[in-house]
Amino acid sequence: MRKPAVLVLIISFALFLVTLPAFLLITGSGDSDTDEAADTARAGGIFSGLNMHESRKLPQSATVSADRPVVLPDDHGSHPAFRLEWWYLTFVLENAQPEAGSGPDKYGLQFTLFRFINDGYEPNNWADNQWWMGHASLHSTVSHEFEERFAAGGTGLAGVTTAPFSAFIDNWRWQAEGSALTPSELKFTINRHMDITLSLTTNGPPVLHGQQGYSTKSASEQYRSYYYSQPFIQANGVINSHGEKTEVTGSGWFDHEWSSQLASDDALGWEWFSLHLDNGDKVMAFRMHVNNQPPYVTGTYIFSDGRSETLSKEDLSLIPDGAETFHGRTAQVRWNMKIPSKNLDVNISPFKAGQWNEGRFSYYEGRVNVEGTHSGQGFMELTGQNP
Description:
By secondary structure, this protein is mainly β. It has one domain (3-382): AttH-like domain (AttH-like fold). Helix content is 4%, strand content 50%. The protein has 1 helix and 23 strands. It has one helix at 3-19; strands at 84-95, 106-117, 130-140, 144-152, 158-162, 165-169, 172-176, 184-190, 194-202, 207-208, 214-216, 224-241, 244-259, 267-277, 282-290, 296-302, 308-311, 317-326, 329-339, 344-350, 356-357, 363-372, 376-382. The strands form 2 sheets. Strands 1, 2, 3, 4, 5, 6, 7, 8, 9, 10, 11, 12 and 13 form a 13-stranded antiparallel sheet that branches. Strands 14, 15, 16, 17, 18, 19, 20, 21, 22 and 23 form a 10-stranded antiparallel sheet that branches.
């Protein structure tokens, strides 16, 4: 490696260590309030430890507006004027050759790249004011692997490009052939002894949530984001764990979301669901918690042919029905979901206990089973309030 490149790495890491204390801490758990109950007042939101606050109204803090819809493929890229952003992949995978006896039968896989504005750092010749974080998690029926990485922006260690599309941090990389998300390859490691390689294709269109990607997170629309998904991902590849290779196949879901308003101290967190129903339809749903307000419930019903409908709180019910405790925090991990207009009444439950990502940023992220009027599989994320 050339000496200038080594020097950049050393100085970037030193700057990271100096500013890291201001970069902590997201906490995560579900809450047990009903849809009608108001959240109690709390000291800060899920992003309040990131040293970035929308209330400061800094010049570089862009605003989500209904007048500016999401435009693809341009918006696959990064939006550094917004205070936070993430590119989020989840997969429900099966052992493609269970008769071979290699590896568990079922997996839940997560790959995420986050970007934040760091208010406490002035851009210079070494790095910009962006921080990047990568999360990778793999649950099988018998094990869990999780790794968390950080990188300073402007150093070449992390970022997103659009032509062709690429999202990376260190040697973790999602690389497409062109400006579309697929066909592409996802390749990363977890804790050095696990290598994952997946080939990704799609059999349906991306979905813009809300109003052409303008997604409201509260009744007043004070809290909002740009948000779209690609819920029709097909994945095939190999999980290599400690030298034992398992061929896997299954379904993936991609979320891309960016906002400045969600950096507010009053944005407390959410419960989020992405469901692959066995009839080919998909469901995205969430409950958003804002300080001193009732949970805000909305979602999108996605038909197998790619058509979609926004779900209002009158047509979507999410009721907690069972909890687990993780490191002193209680998360509601069993739910009942009703969508009367679609004759849907299902129970959502973890495919295994203990699907908690414990790191500097801790939250619940796990594969779920769907049973009731419809059947299927999916993912659940809980980054809500402490009990």
